[in-house]
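F.,

This is the one I mentioned.
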């Protein structure tokens, strides 16, 4: 099995991602033309769960140097080459989309609420890959808390974009030997969806 970094996954899968740039020094980061606030992330195959290892920081332009140096220190402590992704942020609802290779059903796709909701309410729906747009709509309707996606606090999302993305992701195992694929979080609003972080395990 091979575990891919976010950057490797981004290159492999033709999916929507936020604007970003990969840097190896503070000097590079300070020259960025990306719009703030930004999220800074250490990119390394040695750091899989970035949040748990404090390898992700949201930063303003004024705090970029301080926060970038925090991540550099983590890289030094773990003896890994500095490789820090600068990524633009986006407002919207967090969801999770995933692919798992099941011993019985082969590849299945899952949809659930992202962020801390994943562990908090465990509201997830599954289908066998690949799926149709009708299957995608059915997955959305299966969620017990789908009102969070369809109008909670006036934060409704574009369900057509979500359905199209689900269908596209469900077809990835036809081209790639995927053991696991975690798109978490995916940020979606009325205009677009962007995959903020990717974890891929290939067979």
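My design for it:
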């Amino acid at each position: 099995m091979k575990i891919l970094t976010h950057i490797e996954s981004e290159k492999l899968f033709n999916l929507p991602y936020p604007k970003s740039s990969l840097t190896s020094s503070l000097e590079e980061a300070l020259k960025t033309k990306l719009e703030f606030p930004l999220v800074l992330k250490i990119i390394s195959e040695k750091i899989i769960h970035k949040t748990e290892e404090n390898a992700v920081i949201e930063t303003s332009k004024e705090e970029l140097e301080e926060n970038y140096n925090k991540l550099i220190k983590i890289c030094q402590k773990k003896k890994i080459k500095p490789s820090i992704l600068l990524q633009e942020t986006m407002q919207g609802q967090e969801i999770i989309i995933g692919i798992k290779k099941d011993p019985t059903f082969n590849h299945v796709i899952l949809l659930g609420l992202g962020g801390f909701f994943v562990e908090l309410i465990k509201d997830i729906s599954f289908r066998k890959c690949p799926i149709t747009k009708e299957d995608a709509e059915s997955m959305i309707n299966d969620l017990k808390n789908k009102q969070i996606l369809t109008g909670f606090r006036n934060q409704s999302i574009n369900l057509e974009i979500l359905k199209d993305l689900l269908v596209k992701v469900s077809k990835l195992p036809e081209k790639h030997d995927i053991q696991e694929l975690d798109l978490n979080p995916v940020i979606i609003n009325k205009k677009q969806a962007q995959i903020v972080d990717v974890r891929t395990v290939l067979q």
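Helices lie at 6-12, 26-30, 64-78, 117-121, 133-142, 147-150, 159-170.

Talk soon.
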